Amino acid sequence: MNYRKLAVHNFIWIFTSSTLSKILHFITYILLARLLNPKDFGIVSLTAVFVDLADTIKDAGIGQSLIRKREATYDDFNSIFFYNLFVGLILYSSIFLLAPYIEKFYELDDFAEVIRVLGVTLILNSFGYISRLKMTKDLEFKKQFKIGIPSLITSSILGITLAFLNFGYWSLVFMRLFKDLMNVILYNYNYTWRPSFQINLKILKEHIIFGSKLLISAMVNHLFTNLYVFVISKIYNTAILGLFNNADNFRKLFTNQIMVSMNQLTLPLFSKIDNNLELKNIYRKLTIISFTLICPLMFFFSINSDYLYLILFGEKWMFSSKIFKILIFAELFRILTSYGINLMIVKNHADLVLKITIFRRLFFVIILFMTIYWGVIQLAWGIVISEILSYFTISYYYNKLINYTFKELIQDYSPIILISIIAFFFTYAANKIPGIELMDKYAILILNGIIFITIYLVLLILFLHEVWEWLKNIKNDLVDIKKYK
Questions:
Q1: pTM of this prediction?
Q2: DSSP letters spanning 113-177
Q3: pLDDT digits (tens, 9 = 90+) for 21-46
Q4: Environment class of residue 8 by beta-carbon count within 10 Å: exposed (0-12), middle (13-18) or buried (19+)?
Q5: Helices marked H in 165-200 — which ranges?
Q6: Which DSSP string corresponds to 211-237?
């Protein structure tokens, strides 16, 4: 099997779906940010953290266990469906009962009502869970594209309409609820899997044992990744949380389509490759292309942060710009770390994933409590440091798993970092030309974009031959896709 062409073909659909989703989400987010205030976003962000944690517990790593199993049967899917639904019912009941106590702790009006409504998704999503897993396992990303985009468009229209009608944070709640409902309907319409009331406990136990290690890892990752949400809400307020979360979401908006696309692709793709050398080559090429796209984005958005926020969000969100230009540098290391975790899962090192996740999150806790009382700007720098330390921790194991040494890693990435820095300084120097401050902010942003992109591409073509050749090979694969299929 030609894994390179298989990777390219499926990456196209994943990346297209993810990119279009991010564009639509980006437009929706801008409109909502102008209609709502930071406090509205802060309340829903805090609520979503609790619901998403419950959703992580509900999945319990079983989804990943099912994807990695090469000969999954109907009994596998059926048993996991009922397990997922049963756990969802228990978790929603727990949230429903605990909601008033959480509301009292954070001293937020209507919080209990919001989390009880949003928590319904824990039960709702169970009815589309197996169809989504089956499509992912079978690499049917084209079908997922046709499901995700209509759901996003209709839910975004609903959210913007409700915000315009002064529904406040409820517009965000109902937007997410309606999106999940549409996903469930369309997944079941496009995939005719149906459950039967027969549960194979032996098979379920097999998935639970494997998934339990991933569950703990995912819970630790979710809790510590979102620890700042709990802390900022308590120490400061939901308005500050809304501003910080805006910056955090905005930095992920430009890179998550690459991360999500690659993560969706790498786990099922890596699971099909037995040869370590071939796995190393595929892994190396996929991470290099991600690095080539994301690294320059970090530097470009950092230097243009204030212009972007003025144009997109307006004056009331300018404090988020200060946070954004710092947090954007954490993205590269966060994404590369996620690829390494997928590699460990495929190599049956779920226990190693757990140990590394706990270790890397300890960095975050220490740095969080060292910086939070100084202010949220210092907290942003702490998150960057935490992601850097996490990545270098996990990269130690690359050599053991696929013989991808630290020296090779530095040789692959350092030239890309260097040309990104050169493009950054040329753009920065252009912004210091006397009189440029008199120009319109739109004109400055366009000028910066032309300078940065031109210099980066010229240096990429001239000096990074291996990366450029790989990009040309992708183009050739695109031309040959029809024949390949």
A1: 0.70
A2: HHHHHHTTHHHHTHHHHHHHHHHHHTT-HHHHHHHHHHHHHHHHHHHHHHHHTT-TTHHHHHHHH
A3: 878 888 898 899 889 988 898 889 88
A4: buried
A5: 170-190
A6: HHHHHHHHHHHHHHHTHHHHHHHHHS-
